[in-house]
């Protein structure tokens, strides 16, 4: 029986770079994104089954090319949600009173209109929630019922990529709706538990 390499070891091949999301939340981006810069021997040790590596690469690319583009149209879907999103940013960030008011109302208005353009650019449905629900359920289906994560008993970099995208919505209405109307919650909670334990 093959023992999966630790999450920490696999992540070590991808140097992390800290970036800020449009909501001001700090996230990690990984260099060496869609392939491993390893020699043949190392590649076989980390990914002994080629299909595992191909699957991981496919879903990491999916997270970047599709899933991430669903976030802004969903968190700024309506003027009310746009205001709530920026209220969250102001509360979490270091804003003075006037700065906070400016960021909240001007920023919310701007992002509401920008999200409408993004919706059109990415050919999203009138109710962008439906695209979000479909996407996360597609991910849950790909993980399947017989493994905890796409990486098996522990996450791989595809799991981390999807979790990183969805985590941006935490605390917002879109996130709560997603938890209620999709099957993502069990996987997401398992990811949270692993992240807290490993500190990745």
Helix percent reads 55-70%
- According to CATH, the fold-level topology is Glutathione S-transferase Yfyf (Class Pi), Chain A, domain 2
Q: What is the beta-strand fraction?
A: 5-15%
Overall body shape? globular
Mean pLDDT: 78
Distance N terminus to C terminus? 26 Å
**Total count of domains:** 1
Question: Which structural category do the helix and sheet elements fall into?
Answer: mainly alpha
Largest sheet: 2 strands, antiparallel
Structural features, described:
This protein is mostly helical and 200 residues long. It has one domain: Glutathione S-transferase Yfyf (Class Pi), Chain A, domain 2 (Up-down Bundle), CATH 1.20.1050. Helix content is 61%, strand content 5%. Helix 3 packs parallel to helix 8, helix 5 (79-92) crosses helix 6 and helix 7 packs across helix 9 (173-181). It is globular, with a radius of gyration of 18 Å. 29% of the residues are buried. Residues 88-200 form the GST C-terminal domain. InterPro entries: Glutathione-S-Trfase_C-like, Glutathione-S-Trfase_C_sf, PGES2_C. This is PGES2 synthase.
Features:
mainly alpha; Glutathione S-transferase Yfyf (Class Pi), Chain A, domain 2; two-stranded antiparallel sheet; globular; prostaglandin-E synthase activity; PGES2_C; Glutathione-S-Trfase_C_sf; PGES2 synthase; Glutathione-S-Trfase_C-like
